[in-house]
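Duplicate of #3305? Posting structure anyway:
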């Protein structure tokens, strides 16, 4: 495996298989409006995590890589087993999914008038269909079969991904880079698979970089690390 400069190698390891398909989502949660409807917030959060199942993908990567997220990184030899365990405890699937739930609350606080419409779209098959494709590709890019979906479910996913009126929702879900990779607005020199990799890298970094560095700080790891 070629060596990359820190932190590129760490982030590449962090993304694992998901980078081949493109997925990404929330940044570290901030304050949200206390007036958000709790039932709607719960439903929207479930749709965020269904469409972009980063928690499940991280669980699969971590199960395969005992030293995730430091495997293959320059400086990884300086990380003790105890520090690896500490960082992993801060990057659990549950904590990643909770960030997505908080993103959903923030979105509802900013766009309360869109709640009913967006929930109808996501719950009509857009979220489930997109999440199924993401998990299929992240599991095994070469051999995984495309999920079987109905025409209505495919239509809902396409509406989520390409309609201009859903731009704010895509941004909140960190789908904007994935949407551009699927349907580029300008001529692209790379092939669709490469665009997917690039989109996965960009979007997933938006999810992971703040909690990763916070975990490193809490676990006594300096940045950058010496090799």
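Output from current build:
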């Amino acid at each position: 495996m070629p060596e990359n400069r820190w932190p590129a190698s760490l982030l590449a390891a962090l993304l694992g298989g998901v980078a081949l398909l493109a997925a990404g989502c929330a940044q570290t949660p901030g304050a949200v409006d206390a007036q958000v409807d709790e039932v709607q917030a719960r439903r929207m959060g479930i749709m965020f995590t269904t469409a972009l199942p980063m928690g499940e993908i991280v669980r699969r990567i971590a199960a395969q890589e005992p030293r995730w997220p430091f495997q293959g990184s320059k400086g990884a030899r300086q990380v003790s087993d105890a520090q690896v365990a500490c960082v992993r405890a801060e990057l659990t699937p549950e904590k990643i999914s909770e960030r997505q739930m908080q993103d959903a609350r923030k979105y509802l606080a900013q766009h309360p008038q869109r709640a009913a419409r967006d929930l109808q779209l996501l719950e009509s098959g857009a979220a489930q269909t997109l999440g199924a494709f993401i998990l299929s590709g992240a599991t095994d890019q070469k051999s995984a079969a495309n999920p079987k979906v109905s025409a209505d479910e495919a239509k809902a996913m396409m509406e989520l991904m390409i309609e201009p009126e859903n731009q704010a929702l895509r941004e909140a879900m960190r789908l904007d880079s994935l949407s551009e990779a699927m349907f580029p607005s300008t001529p692209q020199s790379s092939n669709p698979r490469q665009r997917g990799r690039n989109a996965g890298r960009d979007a997933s970094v938006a999810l992971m970089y703040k909690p990763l560095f916070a975990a490193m700080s809490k676990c006594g790891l300096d940045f950058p690390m010496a090799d």
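Confirmed duplicate; merging threads. The radius of gyration is 18 Å. The chain has eleven helices and no strands.
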